[in-house]
Amino acid sequence: MTAKIDMGLDGEGKPADVDLEELLATRLLVQGNSGSGKSHLLRRLLEGSAGLVQQIVIDPEGDFVSLSDAFGHISIEAANYSLPEIARMATRIRQHRASVVLNLEGLETEGQMRCAAAFLGALFDAPRDHWYPAMVVVDEAQVFAPAVAGEVSDEARRASLGAMTNLMCRGRKRGLAGVVATQRLAKLAKNVAAEASNFLMGRTFLDIDMARAADLLGMERRQAEVIRDLARGQFLALGPAIARRPINIEIGEVRTLAKSASPKLVPLPSAAKGEMETLLFAPSQQEEEERPPPAPAPVPPADELIRTFEAPPAPVPDLPQMETSEEDSLMTVLLAEVADEAGSRPVVTLYQDFQLRCRMRGLSRTMGLTEFRKRLSLSRAGISDPEAWEEPTALGAALPEEMLTPFLALARAARAGEPCPSDPELARLYRTTSPARARRMLAFIEEKGLIASRVDLSGKRSISLPHLGWTTAPAVADPTAAIMPTRSRRTL
């Protein structure tokens, strides 16, 4: 679908249109000094595209709340809500494609930056299923993406700048089309301004701002003087959604009005000096002193505000119920899968992986980290029935956590009368590649009195567990040692 937005007239008196679909793909930067008509331009753009695309306005001065009366935008008074509530609203806004105005007027500069960062971050992090096209308009963008550090904390500045950078640099793939407006290009972070492909440059007077505007418009520095001569409401426009060459656009009229307007001259009062003194110094009336102040309008709770732009969600069906024995069997299988893929990853990461697998397989319960550590050691040692191995596990509790798996492997081999595990096998269970470290580990366990090692005359090793009365069958500790004499004879 192609939609044209009438922005006004060009220098030849012809209609100047903006291709909305192209604008959503290429983003827009608006620049102009205070009083140049920058907010008027944004209002014309929002009114022209209302009903065609979802609109999200970040409004630091409360100038765009009037859109709610004419076009049904939902106004959110940010000062009345916490940051988690703001983020939750942003998630629902993307889900239900509501057009909103986030009014930041009641907040200090740092509060505005924190609120905008939380709001934009939640818009950016929405699930892929909710990546619908949305026009995100940010007025006074130099507040949220400053080029240099100011009086606000570094934490707030980094969060706000990061959110604005994500909007302009990576938001397109998520359906977010950034439209940013600033009074001064020199105060706006360059990595935010550079991502826009469409430009509307209004009147400015500082040389540094004119030079940057001329660079963005592809004009020579000596031509930048024309930017200083622009009248209020006139903008130089360039970009794939507007024109391939810079054109002069005079912005048309708008249907809604801003809460604040430029000051106008009005006649002074005609009261005489004596009357004016009486008005200024007259004592206050008793009834005025006793009259209670008007009660403020009640603030709607966040949940109630969210319900104004969200449809009732469909109920989530319950997961199929499993028998306890089925859950135990499946949990054992998942533990074995995690143990096989463990590698050198830390236990905490493996625990998160295990919990995710449990949720993916529909398990209604899981286990704590302590229990997981014990069960993982048993699984890596080849033991699937933890209840039958409570005594060896209790003995291994006296060892460091990383030695529990090799100790249980020795116990399993001793109980079954199997050959003693080799040094390379013990090293693998010890999560190392060094057989020497495995031998030092065995010496440590033997010093604890948990095992007794014996090497016969043929070089085969057997290990006993005195507390349990179990002993492994003799086996060569290092299988590579048997070929070493042969290699020596070949060398000689």
Features:
about 500 residues, alpha/beta, Rossmann fold, Arc Repressor Mutant, subunit A, 3 domains, eleven-stranded mixed beta sheet, 21 helices, about 40% helix, disordered C terminus
Write the layout of secondary structure elements.
Layout lengths: L3 E7 L4 E5 H7 L1 E4 L6 H12 L4 E6 L7 H5 L2 E4 L5 H14 L3 E4 L5 H16 L9 E5 L2 H4 L9 H17 L5 E7 L7 H4 L4 E4 L5 H11 L7 H4 L5 E6 L3 E9 L21 H9 L4 H5 L11 H6 L16 H17 L6 H14 L8 H12 L9 H7 L7 H13 L6 H7 L5 H13 L4 E4 L4 E6 L4 E2 L3 E2 L7 H8 L1
Parallel strand pairs: 3-8, 3-9, 4-6, 4-7, 5-6, 7-8
Antiparallel strand pairs: 1-2, 1-11, 9-10, 10-11, 12-13, 13-14, 13-15
Helix pairs in contact: 4-5, 5-7, 14-15, 14-16, 16-18, 19-20
Descriptive account of the structure:
The protein has 492 residues and is α/β, with parallel strands linked by helices. The protein has three domains: 4-251, P-loop containing nucleotide triphosphate hydrolases (Rossmann fold); 323-387; 397-484, Orthogonal Bundle (Arc Repressor Mutant, subunit A). The chain has helices spanning 20-26, 38-49, 67-71, 83-96, 109-124, 141-144, 154-170, 190-193, 207-217, 225-228, 273-281, 286-290, 302-307, 324-340, 347-360, 369-380, 390-396, 404-416, 423-429, 435-447, 484-491; strands at residues 4-10, 15-19, 28-31, 54-59, 74-77, 100-103, 134-138, 176-182, 198-201, 234-239, 243-251, 452-455, 460-465, 470-471, 475-476. It has an eleven-stranded mixed β-sheet with strand order 2-1-11-10-9-3-8-7-4-6-5. Strands 12, 13, 14 and 15 form a four-stranded antiparallel β-sheet that branches. A hairpin with a 4-residue loop joins strand 13 (460-465) and strand 14 (470-471). Helix 5 (109-124) runs parallel beside helix 7 (154-170) and helix 19 (423-429) crosses helix 20 (435-447). The radius of gyration is 36 Å and the shape is elongated. The model is unreliable at 482-492 (pLDDT under 50).
